Amino acid sequence: MSLANGRQYLAIPGPSVMPDRVLNAMHKAAPNIYEGELTEMVGGLRDDLKAVARTRQNLAIYIGNGHATWEAANANTFSRGDTAIVLATGRFGHGWAENARQLGVTTAVTDFGKASPIDLERAEAALRANPDARAVMVTHMDTATSVRNDVAMVRKLMDDLGHPGLLMVDCIASLACDQFEMDDWGVDVMIAASQKGLMTPPGLGFVFFSDKAKAAGKSSDLRSPYWDWTPRNEAQFFYENWYGTAPTHHLLGLREALTMLHEEGIQNVWARHTKLASAVWAAAEAWGTEGAFRLNIADPAHRGHSVTAVRLSGDDGTRLRRWTEFEAGVTLGIGLGMTEPGEPGADAFFRIAHMGHVNAHMTLGALAVIDTGMKVLGIPHGPGALDAAAAALASA
Ligand SMILES: *Cc1c(COP(=O)(O)O)cnc(C)c1O
Known about the structure:
By secondary structure, the chain is an alpha/beta fold. It has two domains: about 10-15 and about 265-395, Alpha-Beta Complex (Aspartate Aminotransferase, domain 1); about 30-250, Aspartate Aminotransferase, domain 2 (3-Layer(aba) Sandwich). The chain is about 40% helix and about 15% strand. It has 13 helices and twelve strands. It has helices at about 20-25, 35-55, 65-75, 90-100, 120-130, 150-160, 210-215, 230-235, 250-265, 265-285, 315-330, 360-375, 385-395, and strands at about 10, 60-65, 85-90, 105-110, 135-140, 165-170, 190-195, 205-210, 295, 305-310, 330-335, 350-355. Helix 1 runs antiparallel to helix 9, helix 10 runs antiparallel to helix 13 and helix 12 (about 360-375) packs antiparallel against helix 13 (about 385-395). The protein is globular. It binds pyridoxal-5'-phosphate. Pyridoxal-5'-phosphate binds near residues 14, 67, 92 and 193. InterPro entries: Aminotrans_V_dom, Aminotrans_V_PyrdxlP_BS, PyrdxlP-dep_Trfase, PyrdxlP-dep_Trfase_major, PyrdxlP-dep_Trfase_small, SP_NH2Trfase/AEP_transaminase. GO terms for molecular function: transaminase activity.
C-alpha cells in the first residue's frame, strides 16, 4: 500500500509547480506566428515581465534555460580579457563564473562559503583589488544553499567606492518570489528563467538590462548573432524577438502565469512567499531541538523565501526524500553542492521548495509529510513542528 496516489507535489526548487491555468492556456492548436493573437500579445507580455522585474528598461527573451541566460548576459557584457568580480555564495555563482571563463573572461572570485551571504568587508577588498573590472556578478538567492544576498548593499558599496563596473544579478530562483527592485537597486543586468517563480515550463530565459549596460555592451567582442540582445530588445519584425520561430506554447503559458501574478499583485506574491517560508523555518527549528535536523542558513534575514536548504545526518536526507516521494506523493529537492563530488555526506542534505504556485495547504502538507516520514523512518527530531508552522501562518 502506498499513500502517494493522489495529486503529486513536486516540491523541488525548479521546475516548480505549474498552475492548471498555465497548463490549460498551453492546450491549444498551433497558433499563427505571422499575424493574429500571438504576435499581438507579445508587447504586453514584455511589459508585464518588466513589471515583475521592476524595471522600465530593456529585455531580451531567449529560447533556453537559466544556463542560456548566463551565457547571453556574459556575451553581451564582456570582451575577451575583461575581468569580472564574482561574489559567490554557494554553487550557482561559480557556474556563472565558469561560463564567463570559458568565453575568455578573467574572473576574480571571492567565495563566501556554503552558509553565508556576501560579507561587506571582503566584497570591498575584491572591488578595491579590481578597480577596472567590467562587472560585479552576484546571485540574489543561491538555490543550493538558500542564502539570499542584499543586492542594494552591493550597489551602495560600488557607488561608495566609485566602482564603474556593471552590477549583474542572477535572479533565476528568486524572481516573483523574493522582493527584487531592478531599477531602484541600480542593477544593470538581471537574468531569470521561466520554470521557477514564473510557473511556466523550462525553456524561456530572460535577460533584463539597463540603458547603461546597453551602451557599455556595444563594444563587447563576445557577441554572436544568436546571443546579441539588441534585435531581441528592439525587434522590428516579430521573428527578431526570438531569432527565428517563436516559442509558441511557452508564450501562451507564460502569458497566463503573468496574468495570475498581476491579478494577485507582486507585493502580495512576495508576502505569500515570506509567510510560507516562515512556516517552513518554524517547523525546521522545532525539528532541530532534538536530533540532527538543521537549517543551512542560521540567520532568517539571509534566507531566501522560495527554497529552504536543510540537513539531517548520515543518509537520512535521501531516505526521507525517498519516503516522501514514493509513500506520500511529495518530491523534495536533493542536496546540491553541499559536499564535494563523491563524498558520502551528500545524502544528509535536502531542500524544501516553496516556490511559485504554492499555498498554505501545500506547504503545511509538505511539512506534515516530512514530519510523518521522520516518524516512520525513526529519524530523531524535536516535537511540535506542525504546531509551530501553524502558529507562524496564524501570526499577523
Ligand atoms: C536554476 C538556477 C540556475 C540554472 O537554471 P537552468 O534552467 O537549470 O539552467 C541558475 N542560477 C540559479 C540561481 C538557479 O536557481
